[in-house]
Amino acid sequence: MVEIKERIYYSVGKVALAIARSDGEIDASEMGVLNRIIAQTEKEHTVDLTLIYNTFEWFENSDYAIEQLVIEGIQNFHLGDDYLTPKLAKCFKYLLIEVAKSQPPITGEDDLSLTKFLDFIELKKLQKTRSKSN
User: pTM here?
Assistant: First the structure.
């Protein structure tokens, strides 16, 4: 069972998978980028991102459609977004953009999945900023 706080990591794993899968297959370069950035981020920011990678692996062989992964990713993210920090938001954005760039070209479906999720993260950051200033 995924805890509420872990929902944001779980959702990023699903969206990363959607992006990697959008060109028809998951390539070694996408897996390599995912592993490298997770390890780098964990070291630099002392945060555990294992659930992102585990989620990616759990759903890798599933029949989930790309759109479904993104929608569920956003829904799951929303459940744990109280735990989103500016540092995590930056890490998540970087991770997803790098996965998208790792297997050129960036397809329309890559771009759509990435844009939907990044727009959602930006909206959450804006809402938090506004609620803190009130």
Answer: 0.82
Cα separation, 43 vs 29, in Å, equals 21
Share of the chain above pLDDT 90, in %: 4
Rounded to an integer, what distance in angstroms lies between the CA atom of residue 127 and that of residue 133? 10
Give the separation between CA 17 and CA 89, rounded to whole angstroms. Answer: 18
What CA–CA distance (Å, rounded) separates 35 from 39?
Answer: 6
- Which burial class, exposed, middle or buried, applies to 96 when counting CB atoms under 10 A from its CB (0-12, 13-18, 19+)? buried
Phi, psi of 51 (to 5 degrees): -65, -30
Give tens-digit pLDDT for 27-64. 788 888 889 988 988 888 888 888 998 988 888 888 88
Q: What is the CA radius of gyration of the chain?
A: 14
Separation of CA 124 from chain center: 14
Q: Which residues contact 51 (CB under 8 A, 6 or more apart)?
A: 2, 6, 9, 10, 13
